Amino acid sequence: MLFCASALLSGIVAAPASAQSGPAAPNPQASNPTPAPPAPVPRVTKSLRVEGVQRLEPETILSYTRLRTGEPYTTETVDQAIKDLLGSDLLADVAIEGLETGDLVIRIRENPVINRVVFEGNKRLKSDKILKEVKLGPRQLFTRTAVRADVARIVELYRRQGRFAATVAPKMVSLDQNRVDVVFEIDEGPKSKVRQINIIGNKVFGSRVLQGAMATKQSRISALFSSNTSYDQDRLAYDQQKLRQFYLTEGYADFRVISAMAELTPDKRDFIITYVVEEGPRYKFGPVTVDSAIRDFDDKRLATALQIKEGQWYNAKAVEDTVEQLSETAGAFGYAFADVRPEFQRDKDALTMTMNFHIGESNRTYIERIDITGNRQTQDKVIRREMRVAEGDAFNTFLVKRSQDRINSLGYFEDKFEIERKEGSTPDRIVLAANVEERANGELTLSAGFSSLESFILQASIRQRNFRGMGQTVSASADYSSTSKSIELGFTEPYLFDSNVALGATIFRRDYNAFNYIGSDRSTTYEQVSTGFQLVAGLPLTEYWTLSTRYTLMKDDVTLDKSTFYSDTDGDGDTECDPLKAGTYYCQAIGSRITSLVGVSLIYDSLNSRIRPSRGHRLSFSADFAGLGGDVSYLRGRFDGAKYWNVGKGFIFSLTGEGGYIHGLKGSTTAGVDPIRITDRFYLGEPQFRGFDIRGVGPRVKRISYTGDPTTGTQLLNTDKDSVTDDALGGKAYYLTKAELEIPLGAGAREMGLRPSIFIQAGAVFNITRPSKTVEFEQLKDSSGKLLYNADGSPTLLPKKTYVYDSNGKPYYVVASTDANYAGQTTTCKVGYAASASAACVGTSLNTLYYTETSPFLESFVGDSAKPRISIGFGVNWTSPFGPLRIDVAKDIISVDGDDAKLITFNVGTQF
Known about the structure:
single chain, four-stranded antiparallel sheet, 16 helices, 16% helix, extended
């Protein structure tokens, strides 16, 4: 039909040419006509069949095409059908055959079904977190479009983590039944760091100073623990604000950041950040005034009390602090919502900034109500009794701040608790909202350590500081080591019968074993077992002063190891403490004594938190009197104090000190014996004095044994540390001071709970009666009577002979070797031998006196000096996943003879 139409159209066009007279004009185009493209010739679809279907229905496949039986088709319609089928995301491959005959066959290969999605190489991001972002999943159809989209999503996830070098390679593992496993092979790459920060345009301040004011840090060894070395796009804008804040505090009110640009290095591992800044001129404060609409305030007096003065360099932070100062002042007078607005007047010619602080008109405010929320366990009254204001009171910012500090000091709630202020039902009413977030108030502490003297140390305690939600404290603790074992149970009621009186009780059993080393073997010296109880009552005198009284009753049993330190010196079969083995100071400590003690303490506490203070101070004065009954009598006084400063930017500096003195009320009846028994004296060392071991500081007696034979000139002192006996005796006076600076780390370290600090400590324990020598050894003399000394300069000492007597005071003899029957046996007969004590002496042998021999040793009393011992070191508090951990490394830099140093200590605990 089209062909006929074409022929007809040709005849119509050609007719006028044949009717013309004369020869036709030449037409080059007519002589060489361009053939028109042939129009597609349609064919009719005779039949239509789909092959290759497995899960899909043929009708579903045909629904995506325009091919129908009995309708015409062309090459273009077939191509479009293939595009439509592939665009359905149902098929992996499509082919249409039979175009010549009209019997069309659509051959398809269905997209496989995903069996599972697997991630490999992901260590920084868990698979479950990636699965939430990807769209592919089991029993879904696999498509390349979806895979590409999921690859982009995974890469974006890693970019959010700061890993711009991360790559994702998708793989497909074919399975039977047209199923596949999709595997995303992930190369996470390193975290993209900030390699360099460039600042252009700064003339007054160096780049290092400005970089220190920014949150983002260059990747350096000094920033090893900081997470701010990684690139963060949001932090880029934050740092621009930090730069502006820095310049505004230095007087550059016109400072601006012209541009900020971050460039990724070609290896995608690092960023280079460039800031272009304009500093502008520096301003000073002009006249500073206060304009108050509140008639209670004197504008001139307020202006005089301000920290900022005319002529000082302009400081935006000082302006903010002044606004807060004036707001707090207004709040102290009951104006809770005083509107303080700073008004600036800039003089660019004189480079001054005139300041006027306008205090808007405000009503005196009263507390309408106090709302407490978030306390699921803690009872309302526990929180309300710490409030220094009550409903109906005039609002006072000072008392509200004090209430906030007292609630924080309970330790029951998360840090950063603040009392919010909300408008009440009328303009002169305010609502205080205490929205608390309870924390774990149970503490399970496990401490472990190692000591050159104590070996392994274990300590465990459990404490609930908010028992039944009533603020009561219940505790139990147990310690175990080679030197001590103890168990203690305690209970404290902070508000007895809802009155402002605290009452606590503790019962305890403490076993302490003092020991030393003899050679390489450890030898226990005295054992002390203390059993008793203590009652404590506390009464607040003012907001900051508290009076505390206590009564303690305990029984002490002090013993020595009989197998080591006892001897039968008189031969009666009963062993007694041998001073040659134990020392006179230990033999005199043996016995059972009862101590009845009353004490009183006066405490001043203005700390903003008892858990982790950052400002305020605490002072405590204590006096104890032992002698209200019992067997001991003394007076003991103690003092301790602490002061904390928040020195800015997260640094917390603290000074602490303590000291004490004990005075015996009964004099000593024996020369060389101190009236204060060894178990009541002060001791210093780990854990309070870091850098020294347990009882590692203070007076002590050292025994150094001799080796060799004095008669042959080979005698020498054995100064090997493990061979020196070292007995700590404690002192009647002591002091200990410490200066410590807690250092803030980057955000990453804070998130890990790391709080490092450096410290220096100084202290001493001293002042006891010099103990009398245990034994006097005879010094060897030459033939002319001159005293002899060993090669190392020590005196040449002879062994000590101790003669042995029976219960009647008769000396023992050794039967002479000439006796045929009893040679070498001991007897009380000077001549001969007696079969029993009452029998007559028989024989004629001349016997020699029997004695025991004590090898010589050099005994010295050392360490009794008030000279300060000093240690310096650093420590780290770590709120680890398994509990709070404290590690200290401290080095003694000043010590005296006898002190026992210790380099590393640690302890760990947990909370529930």
